[in-house]
Amino acid sequence: MELKEQLSGVPGMLRPFKGFLRDSGLNEGDQVVYYGCPGTCTPFIELLGFAVRDLPIEQVYVPYVNEAAAKVIRPVEGVGMQVSAESAVKVDPKVIVLMGGLSMPGVPVTKEAVRGAVATHPGAMIVGVCFMQMFEKMGWVEMFDFDLLIDASINPVRVWQ
């Protein structure tokens, strides 16, 4: 995998994601399934989902790798995209999106468990979205064959009070 381009800000994260999905040959109703940590990854998943809201795909959120707890991501008028209380009928991803929070120390899931979940969906494209080189630091770049990897930076964080 080679560095294709370096962008900045929130659009730098969202535009390549949307472009990849738009150009991936997805058909109406195909699933994009996001695997991530409850709470911390969810807002980023909803942001990514908002960027691709005009594509005719079904978006699904899986907490950690628990596909039995999968939820549909829906548009909410005046708000954006949100993980709904509605369970997904069946997880059948054409695109798997692995969120970087899964790779962070202390998260109750191993990269081997994530690899096992990914392996149950052969042929699905794999997208990684992380911050601050977490996938590199935790050895995920070598473990997963990412079709697209977005590594964003939130540094520095400046706070005034």
UniProtKB/TrEMBL annotation:
Entry-linked InterPro entries: UCP004962
Any Pfam family matching the protein: DUF2124
Protein's name in the database: DUF2124 family protein
Species this protein is from: Methanoculleus receptaculi
Lineage, broadest ranks: Archaea, Methanobacteriati, Methanobacteriota, Stenosarchaea group, Methanomicrobia
